Each structure stands twice: as C-alpha cells, then as structure tokens.
C-alpha cells in the first residue's frame, strides 16, 4: 500500500524531520501538534486554555487537509506538562468532537517542544 504526505498551511509547519501527517490507505497518522500559530510559527500564548484551543485547531486543520474531520479520529494521545489541566482539556475537547469520542490517552510528560504545555497526535480512519 502506498503512502502519501498530508500538508496544509493552516497548521504549523514541521519543525523537524517529520510530516504533518501520513496517509496509508484510509488511515491517516497525525504527527503531534503543539500550540503554534501557523502564520507566525509562534506560541499562541502562555495560557494553558489558549494553548489547548490552538492545538485542537491545528489538529482539525490537518484532519481537513487529509479529507476528514476530528470526528474521524479513532485514537488521540494528549501529552500534558501538568496533569492538573486534565479537566480543561476535557472541556475544550468537547467543543471540537462529537460523540462517539475517539479512544484517548492523556500522558504527563516533563517537557514538550518549544516550551508547549500540550501536544496532541492521533490516528484517523477516513470514511470509505
């Protein structure tokens, strides 16, 4: 099965040796998104809620570039530098997803690229 690169200018450009997403068949593997604003490649703010909102917008932009939406995500991983922000993530995520929600893990980590407080990656299954 061939794979193709998914790219959009509506999400931050890769800051390393990776693609925003890779599509293989009807499955799309999304790289981690941090709260960078695509147009400036700068962090949206130091406020956690604003960072979380930006990350979900970035994930949504990559999903759309692949031909899907956040509701097509089967699995997401959320990396947090402070697990006390878990409730805020749930509140913001509920604005970007409809039920049934994807499978999910929330993982506490020491640090993330560029000092981000949140990063999200995922696996999306496109409708056939």
TrEMBL record:
<keyword id="KW-0378">Hydrolase</keyword>
<dbReference type="GO" id="GO:0120241">
    <property type="term" value="F:2-iminobutanoate/2-iminopropanoate deaminase"/>
</dbReference>
<dbReference type="InterPro" id="IPR006056">
    <property type="entry name" value="RidA"/>
</dbReference>
<comment type="similarity">
    <text>Belongs to the RutC family.</text>
</comment>
<dbReference type="InterPro" id="IPR035959">
    <property type="entry name" value="RutC-like_sf"/>
</dbReference>
<protein>
    <submittedName>
        <fullName>2-iminobutanoate/2-iminopropanoate deaminase</fullName>
        <ecNumber>3.5.99.10</ecNumber>
    </submittedName>
</protein>
<dbReference type="InterPro" id="IPR006175">
    <property type="entry name" value="YjgF/YER057c/UK114"/>
</dbReference>
<dbReference type="GO" id="GO:0005829">
    <property type="term" value="C:cytosol"/>
</dbReference>
<dbReference type="InterPro" id="IPR019897">
    <property type="entry name" value="RidA_CS"/>
</dbReference>
<dbReference type="Pfam" id="PF01042">
    <property type="entry name" value="Ribonuc_L-PSP"/>
</dbReference>
